[in-house]
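@channel sequence for tomorrow's demo:
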Amino acid sequence: MTPAHVLSQRNLTRDLPIRSPDRDRHHPIQLFQNKATPPVTQKTYTSKRSAFLFSAIACLSTLSLGCSDAPSVGTVEGTVSLNGKPYDDAAVMFLDSTTGQAAGTDIGDGGQFALKDPIPTGTYNVYLAPRTVPMEEGSPEAVKIDESVPEKYWNETTTDIQAVVSEGENSVTIELMKS
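structure tokens (generated this afternoon):
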């Protein structure tokens, strides 16, 4: 009997109609006709149990890597003024240059604005952008920038206005000054 044969001769010949006259040799058809499975041993059971436990621990540890405390956030509302007068002909943008987190909204009547969603706490560069223009059928309209506002306020890298957003509610006053 060769080591390649996993099943014992007794298991091969017990349920089969074909029997080899020589009990030490297996008939080739016997190998394919036998539907018996090897008995489950303690070693097999322990191996499967260990593999299952290892897989479960690996899955749980992988899932726990994605779990972390949510960052603290704050809501932002405020006013924008140009030389002391309410300004509403633009959108106000907030950009955290260390994380890339950004948010913005159109400035409403009286220079009032409120960001729609809370943003992570941090220090943000505040700058202006053109107002949101609804898309209409036909050709797109060119974006218009109010030239009465100094150019430095229209770019996130040149603005000198910063706002610190803390956890909870934040009220921000943005003062734009002509040079």
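heads up for whoever presents: Residues 42-65 form the longest helix (24 residues).
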